[in-house]
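# nightly structure sweep
# worker-07 picked up a monomer target from the shared queue
# config: single-sequence mode, recycle default, output format = structure tokens
# input follows
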Amino acid sequence: MKILSQHIKSGQFKSVYLLCGDEDYLRKQYRDRMKDAMVGDDTMNYSYFEGKGISVKELIELGETLPFFSERRLIVVENSGFFTSSQDELSAYIKEMPESTCFLFVEKDVDKRNKLYKAVSSLGYVANLSAPDERTLIRWINGLLKKEQRYMSDAALGYFLGRIDTDMENIRRELDKLVVYTDGSTEITKEDIDAVCTVYTESQVFDMVTAVAQGQQSKALELYYDLVAQKEAPMRILYWITRQFNQLYQIKDLQSKGYPDHIIAERMGVRDFVVRKNKGLCQRFSLAELRRAVQICVEREEEVKTGKMNDRMAVELLIVLFSSKTS
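# output follows
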């Protein structure tokens, strides 16, 4: 990201770029920033292509067209699938295209063995725009809040991140809702978050597993029925329950080996606050109980897939089983 920002600031650009990675918000942000810096509002020398089935021949013909009263022609190609398939013609072309042509590829999925990927890496710049670490994410959120003359306490911010989907685009949407809701106030509280934010399914499942751990069977079942009422498929809920128990198992296992939170997060591929959120819940289970819980979840999934059990009933019985053991 730093190198992209340097190119944008200096106005000195490579002939070809690839913006990839799993963070949609960052890909779109840098796509738009690059476009504005390269051609601005010039529609004569800007072309945009999106989706599968884009004609490589058309791209090459356009790349051979000299820019009209400008030093640069920009061609943006998004979600093409070119970096997971054979693209010999296009990878050969960008090695010899005119200096006045610039390609900007925007793709979520790439294969580094792909010829086009290797060509872009060699001739231009590949930016992997993955989800930022927790410190960077919090700094970004605080920056957005500051622009709107709002702030959250550390506790409220941790609660916010624990309740919503932490995709950056979703965070931005939820913050916009909070800013509107708290008009006339500077502080955003936990009560505000509960009032307007869309709770992520994973967070609701966390509440359900917490109720199970506390032996609160009625509450756990109520949370399950709420998810079903929200049109969440029982098998999807089972997936999240399995994932939750698996996370708890990994955290407890790594804790028992003496690893600190940030190393546990790094090894699991999650942010630090996910580990902190789950640590207390881990204490309510033994390592053997968590391992058995994951095993039972997998068995229930197999029973549903083989037609031995109804999906909704399978999850319900799972909740009853687990909460009965802890009551």
